[in-house]
Amino acid sequence: MQKLYVAMALCLVLLLTACSSKEASTMAFESDSSEVTNESRQDLLDNSNIAVTVASGKFRVNYLESTALSLISGIIPTENAVYIWGCKYQNDIGTDHILKYSYSEGIIMDCPLSTSENGYILSFDINKKDSDSLCYLERIDSDDESVWTLHYKDKEISLSWTDARSNLQQIQFNDGSIYITDRNIIRICNLADGNLLYSLEAPSEISKFFRTSNDEMIMYCKDIGEFYSIKAGEASLQKIGDLPKTFQFNAIYSGCNSPFDTLIVGENDLYGWNIGEPEVTRILSFDTCGINSYNLASFSCIENGKYIGATWRSGDPIDRLFCIEPDEGLPRESTILRIAGLSRPLVLSSAIADFKMTHPEYSIEYTDYEEQYGDQALEQLQIDLLQGDSPDLLFVNGLPLKVFSSRGLLENLYAWIDSDDSLSLDDFTANLIVALENSNHYLYQLPQSYSIVTTLSTRKAPTTNGFWTFSAVNSELENDPTLISAFYREPRESLAVTLPMYMINSLVDYKNAQSQFSSDAAIDFLEFLNNIQPQDQLQYISENELDALKKGEVLFAQLMILSPEIFVESVRSFDSTLYFAGYPDAPNGNFYLNLPMAIPVTADEKVGAWEFMKFLFSSEYYTTRGGWLPLQNHFEKTLDEAIAQGISKTYLSQLSEIQESIYSATYYDEMISDIILDETSYMFAGVHSVNETSEQINRRVQLYLTEQYG
Are residues 369 and 488 in the same domain? Predict the structure, then answer.
């Protein structure tokens, strides 16, 4: 790493280090702009065009035997060992401990830490120059004030210079002094008596304070993405680099014991970086190791190529220590399971880590097509599917599922359900499965979970036989001057995109590859959109959608039902009769699919793909946004839990009736949506009439259908 030190006069250093606590001064940071802001290198970092070198090698994960540490707060690396700070619980009473762990010897020290009443530990460090003596910082809160104490060897050192504004957090040893972060200030204290010697000011709050392998102290200001170096005996900070913007939201750890200054824990990968250099090294994939990077409590390098960390398993509050080490022994049987999608689902890291615990025979690789191929993502995915280089499991959010299935690119999942002894078709929500079938009654996708999307109405007039038409809505809006709009504060541009998702089958006949945008129903829909006034011209009394429906300002309120509690909370305040109108061609509502999945016919590992799919749709832990698993017993379980909470059975019966009566699933066709949005923009501008817009959309959609399905 390039070190950018600014020389300070020796007399100034001596003067500052001789200051008493009352005379302590604060020194501003300094940087050598001629080196740090070298245009070519800094532009590379600022624009995130940083080069990524991929290290070779395979790794394996070993979970350590229980250390009795329930919660792990920090890991500090020293030469060929690490110190682990955590808390042990016995009879609901927690005690802080420091463990010393060596890769070759395991745990070789277990030291309990003493704290005062109402005190808690904030940070610790090891004095390598004094037989690895331990020092830790304690904060003690009372009704009137907070005080800070350093514990070093057998001494308690009071930091009497602190005041009500102090917020001490992290500590580091250095040549008989202790360096302590206080928001954006580094306080340098005499270790013998705790007196404040001087202070250094950073331009932003210090989020990370650590050492490199060459014992250099580094501080990182996350808010501005800048690294600074502190050299012992010098009263200034030297800026040494900016974190590439690609990693601005990732966790930073010390690179001690590794070839790097810092380790960066990315969304899925571990990187090593020497600060200021225009390239990073991708060390390993957490997916392959079965580690969820979001669940890391701490992480460190034990020795070159070997890492230790603390994580918790999904749903388990207890931290577990693990080691990642090179897998250099005899080849072990491991099956690659390739998963892909247009983006990376938020729950995927947790799911992979949990799946690896029960299926250690699989090594999982994930491809984010949009991240890897950008605007060519969909085209590249179709090429891979057609040429047999497909993933084993595919998340189909945003993908043209109907195109893929019509070309025979996806497995019929009925065969997998029938051959699985652990479940049967009767276990699934029957009408959901019907909604997911294609016109030939094949099942090409299953979701991790689903929600219910519907519309509420207090009027029966716009609905006919349980569903409504745009013709009836247009008539109602024209004849009732008290109505402001059909939907509360929904601009027509937004409705032009969202409404077709819930009524696509009335606009497109995918089976026969026929556009129906010239039909009376489609023209009524376009007429409806064209009649919506710009939102800034509409004056509502109500402050929210449900109140607007109660006051008769709108015809419909859109409702996404994620749980019995949300449903009851939304409808219980209505005194009048409520109609669950759904959408045209979708009476009562739609199933909204969360993480729908499919298996390509050219997949190499279909068994593993089915096991992973089943793993996801069988666990309610991954329904992070609410909703229900596609297994009917989960829906029934949530109703039973709601009854146990005292929720009226009348409301729950109403929800059950809605769920049982839905036979449509939302479907987003990006190409058709883009065509609608493009052509209606001319209609909204008054350039084209409704009929002209209908003809244009119909022509373009028909060309698309003929190309893809004809």
Answer: no
